[in-house]
Amino acid sequence: MKKGILGRKIGMTEKFTTDGKVIPVTVVEVEPNVIMQVKTVETDGYNAIQLAVVDKKEKNASKAAIGHAKKAGVSPKRFLKEIRVESTEGYALGSTIAADTFEVGEKVDVTGTSKGKGFQGVIRRHGQSRGPETHGSRYHRRPGSMGTMRPMRVLKGKKLAGHMGAETVTIQNLEIIEVCVEDNYILVSGNIPGPKNSLVLIRSAVKGGKVEPKEIIINKPETVVDAVEEVAEETTTEVAEETVTETENTTEEVVEETTEETLEVAETDETVEESTEA
Hints:
The protein contains four helices and twelve strands; from the N terminus they run E-E-E-H-E-H-E-E-E-E-H-E-E-E-E-H.
């Protein structure tokens, strides 16, 4: 089944498997995507859904965008993307799609806009070789010959200097390593195009398939709050033990004093009775 979701590239990290292997992963923040439009074969000639994410102020949106969003019962969105699906069953206008739409082990294709590098020469842009740098050579980083003389023009497709990057790039057959619905993120194996905080589209792989999920080591570091709670529990336990000890000691002292007073009173009564008899 074809499916997809919009997200933001946060950065890269690594995960370790139980058998000691390290997997470089890219963290993609995936907020719940709103379905802004559902297209069917009957109405549009094909099946597709339109996803939207990131709220947009109404003053910055056109009337058409505001009206389009009101049909779904949501506020205008900044990013919209249409995804072809095999069937629109299960997709309702205004509903949301979360990170759990994908499972661990699924193969996906990730599309993003590559980093822009500005105007670059042929060596960086196309990987061409430079000329000699010494011995009077005047050919260093130039593109070289423009081609044959006969057409009297530069042929189309000639590799020359120009704008590099800022292109739509798709990386295929990446694996889903981890899915977290609570924190709204997906970990994808390998690297994906685009700078940090750029918008990316995760879709089911065209070449498809699913592999056995890898067993990832999940580390739960002890936080300061946990340490404080443990110290507080230990302190409370110690205070309680001291209180019990003090209470027991106080009770024993009271019992001893009461016993002594009772004995003194008994002796006084005996002395009074003897005086009366005399």
